[in-house]
Amino acid sequence: MIRSLVASVTRLISGVGRIPYAPCGGEPAIYFANHTSHLDFAVVWAALPDEARENLSPAAAEDYWGKSAFRLKVACGLFQAVLIPREGITRENNPIERLAEALKAGRSILIFPEGTRRGDGRVGEFKAGIHHLARRFPELPLVPVQLENLSRVLPKGSFLPVPIIGRACFREPIRFDKGESKTDFLVRARLALLGGVEETVN
Questions:
Q1: pLDDT tens series, the chain, 202 aa
Q2: Cα separation of 196 and 9, whole Å?
Q3: Is 71:125 a contact under the CB 8 Å cutoff?
Q4: DSSP state of 87
Q5: If I label 42, which of 64, 73, 115, 200 is the partner at 20 to 30 A Cα–Cα?
Q6: Model pTM?
């Protein structure tokens, strides 16, 4: 009940609608999106149908969401997130291993392959994490989600959203190709998120 209410409020705040069916028919998947604001994982989560949303564990920055007991409860209790360290990474707290544990448990995950937000609104180059996960779980579909305007809904450093319509475009799933190099895979995954059209610099 609480999650459904939060999902409805998130859709209302962001202007992002609910998709009618899960891109992979409800089976576990690796969702990946561009990183624009702290709203990102909540918006993708809220846009999914109930069953897919309940099975999703978004990656969330541990240094931000673990800063207080309240944020921790929201991230892990409400959104069932996997907290990811961004600094001081060791073998014991490897973010890939944390995400892999969720996938082994039959859950879907949501990751942000850029690793950090860009200030110009463009989609940055993808880091290798998504390749490591795809290689370990080649049977899982990878679902690109392109987010637009969310950085304007919740600008960096802001705590209150502004009424601007955001957009979440769920693209066709892609699959891991064992014969593909890491570089080629990362380029292909980024292009899939962009809808097959490379960005141009104005």
A1: 799 999 998 898 888 889 998 888 778 999 999 988 777 889 999 999 999 999 999 999 898 888 899 999 999 999 999 999 887 777 777 899 999 999 999 999 999 999 776 656 689 899 999 999 999 999 999 999 999 877 555 555 554 455 557 789 999 999 999 999 999 999 999 999 999 766 654 4
A2: 32
A3: no
A4: S
A5: 200
A6: 0.88
